Amino acid sequence: MDIVFEPKLIISKFILTGFPMEQIYGEYETRRKATKAALDYRWDNLMLCIQDAYGHLYSFMISPDRDGYFITVWDITGTRQIWKGAVVLDENGYMSNEQIDEVMDRLRNFSDNRVKCSGCDEWTDVRDNSRRFYASIYCEKCWEKRYKKKAEKENYG
After folding, report:
1. Which is it for strands 81-86 and 68-74: parallel, antiparallel or unpaired?
2. What is the 3-state secondary structure (H, E, C) of 99-144?
3. Residue 46: pLDDT over 70
4. Domain limits of the chain?
């Protein structure tokens, strides 16, 4: 019997608006390491989730990079990318309200089966699984123009 156990650390929009990104990342890392040790859990991926206003959970990753932080958001399974980008910090180290609103807008739209194309950033229907390449989802135009041939060369087997 194959039973999967995946611990989740859950944050809300209010965490993003209420604390500097450095503090959020530090707390996440502390709790992630403590959770891994306490549960003897060996994987790092998808332990952090963000919760929208309706209680839906989405996989969420904060990564430090040379210019600050980078965030990626996927559906809860980690198979469909919803948003990614470098974090825009204000003068006090908080994620900008405009960017937080953009992330939350993407989550609302995902709940309505809409996601931005990973190629051109236009809205497309998330239910069309035929235009996916790894976790990215593409509109018809981008898929036919560029990504269909790339996907056909891949071996998912």
Report:
1. antiparallel
2. HHHHHHHHHHHHHCCEEECCCCCCEEECCCHHHEECCEECCHHHHH
3. no
4. 9-112, 117-157
